[in-house]
Each structure stands twice: as structure tokens, then as C-alpha cells.
Amino acid sequence: MATTKWSIDPTHSEIGFKVKHMMFTNVSGKFGTYDATITTEGDDFENAAIEFSGDIASIDTANADRDNHLKSGDFFDAENHPKLTFKASSFKKINDEKYEITGDLNIRGVAKTVTFPVEFSGILTDPWGNTKVGLSIEGKINRKDWGLNWNSALETGGVLVGEEVKLNIELQFAKQA
Description:
Helix content: under 10%
Number of domains: 1
Shape: elongated
CATH architecture: Beta Barrel
CATH topology: Lipocalin
CATH class: Mainly Beta
Strand content: over 45%
Number of strands: 11
Strand order of the largest sheet: 1-4-5-7-8-9-10-11
Largest sheet: 8 strands, antiparallel, barrel
Number of helices: 1
Oligomer: single chain
Distance between the termini: 15 Å
């Protein structure tokens, strides 16, 4: 069976995250520049090869000062580590709509194996004749596992920035000829 390559459609995808601020509200952000590819056997996504990279410089939380702090050595250290990457080691089918993805997430030069549930929305043809597939990924990571340790204690107790990062990723891929 021939291999099929799928490229990300960035106009219909979003790499989002949320982190608690002052222990009680969420601050949302996203990466504006990223790339991802999937390689499958035909149109079968079981055991697909999936790779992703995101440009740290493109981080956007709707606040320039916060974005610059996230790019600094206190967090992502964009100067020395300009990209975060993910390479799947497994893409396992649970049922027609659910998969599980496992792979190495590399942030700030630290690679850790993570597993996330994936909602597979199926394969369809758009109005312009392009074959598309949609994936939704939600998960959680602890930012300290990758050396993103900066924080500030609050006078009232607790910390300024939560350790848990919630991921909300919507991906649309186009089948390549």
C-alpha cells in the first residue's frame, strides 16, 4: 500500500494552551507559527507517523509583556531553544472516533514522553475537492517537567503561575497529491 502524506492547514488549526494565573483564573495563549505532518499507509491512520514543531517566538497571550517574559530564559528561552517539537512513537486506534497519541515532547532541550487522547473527526472532501482530516487533542502537562520553573509567591499564599498547562489543539490536515 502506498504511503500518504498529510500537511497541516494552518488557517483551520490552532495550538492553544491555558495556565492558571493567581491560582483562580486561566490565561489562554496560542502558537501562531507551527508546522505538522502526518504520514499514513493509504488513508489508515492507525500507526500514523506524526511530527509537529512550534516556533516559540510566535507565542501569543494577547499581552506583549507576558509574551516577552514567556520567550525569555525564565520560561521557554527562545533565544537558545527557538522551537518546541513533538514526534509520535504511537498513534493507536481506540474506536472510529478516538485515538491515543504517544510521543516525545521536546521543550527547552528537554524531551519527555507524553500520551494524549485524540478525537478523530474522520476524512472528508471540502468544497474545493481537497481531502481533509481533523484531529482534536486535549491534555495536560506540568511545565516544571521541562524546566519552565519560574514563579512568584503571592502575599496571600499560593503562586502567580500554575504548574499545570492545559492543551487544546485543533488540527486540520490536507492530503497531499
